[in-house]
Amino acid sequence: MLKYQKIAEQLFSFIKSNNLKQGDCLPSLNKLIQQYGASKTTVLKALDQLERDGFIYQVQGSGTFVRNIPDEHFINFNVSHGWTNDFTKTKMENSDVTVEKTLPTPLVASRLQCAIDTPVYKVQRLKKQDDKIFCLETSYYNANVVPFLNEDIAKASIFHHISDVYQINVGFSDKYFKVRRLTNFESDKLNLPQDSFGLAVHETFYTTAGDIFDFSENVYHHENATFYI
Amino acid sequence: MLKYQKIAEQLFSFIKSNNLKQGDCLPSLNKLIQQYGASKTTVLKALDQLERDGFIYQVQGSGTFVRNIPDEHFINFNVSHGWTNDFTKTKMENSDVTVEKTLPTPLVASRLQCAIDTPVYKVQRLKKQDDKIFCLETSYYNANVVPFLNEDIAKASIFHHISDVYQINVGFSDKYFKVRRLTNFESDKLNLPQDSFGLAVHETFYTTAGDIFDFSENVYHHENATFYI
What we know:
Two copies of one chain form a homodimer.
Chain A: H1 3-17, H2 29-36, H3 40-52, E1 56-59, E2 63-66, E3 75-76, E4 92-102, H4 106-112, E5 120-129, E6 132-142, H5 151-155, H6 158-166, E7 170-181, H7 184-189, E8 197-207, E9 212-221, E10 227-228
Parallel strand pairs in A: 3-10
Antiparallel strand pairs in A: 1-2, 4-5, 5-6, 6-9, 7-8, 8-9
């Protein structure tokens, strides 16, 4: 994790533990620079990250304020880095985890922008919040970038793991989504009747240097998933 | 429109007109400062806005690069300010526009954080892209903040109008969404069979100073709306 990301995490924790509400003011820039012993640039990057994630807003000449932070049962659709999950009281769990080293389909190869003989890790996980299934995730990691994955790793946060072990940090992602009828396989996994509708999300993840390392397709349970951004 | 927003718009136009692609480099910060005759802070704010909107990424010590910009038939789910629409070749249209001055329901009053005897403008619009209906929008504007709206204004961009006339600029929004069964009224409007599913979005808009001025509920046609962020 980069220094500004650590400061963003600490500031988020500060907001949560002090139970700050919409419109409450954060300490001044100079106070934050002192408090975190960081440069102005680094603190500003942390604030920009928190603003981008929707937790604060900055008013020119006036200060930095806390935004309405939704109840934990809502899924933050913009945040892929996952550290905010550390602060939720709800129980988040990956179940039915499978990991397979395989070759990409043409679609997956095109999304990963790799040759079709590039080895990839296919990871499938059911995501549960307080024991309710809300998402079936199918991810493909380019094995030339992420050399090793297994089920133990995939039960926890893969992004934390590859950041710690390979210094691969998520920079941004291209995310496409639409409402569609689920396949029978997807309905079964999500415990829904056949022909149910759900939100289907295609996401391509880039490192901070702009290299693609992961393509995911997520389908969400229409009753158990409410989102915010 | 604020100065940094104008620069963001011009940079976006520069990317489009030069047909820049994923990974292409933008001019250096110093060049941009010269080119736009603006301060470093203002140019950095413009770049941050474009980064937040998903059009560029900044690599520390390396430069600013263009991201994959999707085909115009996809709806940018993150962008509410609307100026990027000026560059699309597809035909965007608001039809079946109705504007009514009324009192808010308890839900609307709570979302606008106003008293239930506050006058509001209720604006309903069908949104079409290349003559295909993709969204039914129902918006409520606090009439103490936005003193006047009518159908002519609502046929074009309301956000442009209130920025020009009242200097009300959109700062950020709280956006909640889920997949649900549409009401009969909604299905009819979207030309869908009854009991169709769609994406329902609740959005509360704040000015740059953090004041609420608009609450909208949008429902999207599941076949005619594909999104990206």
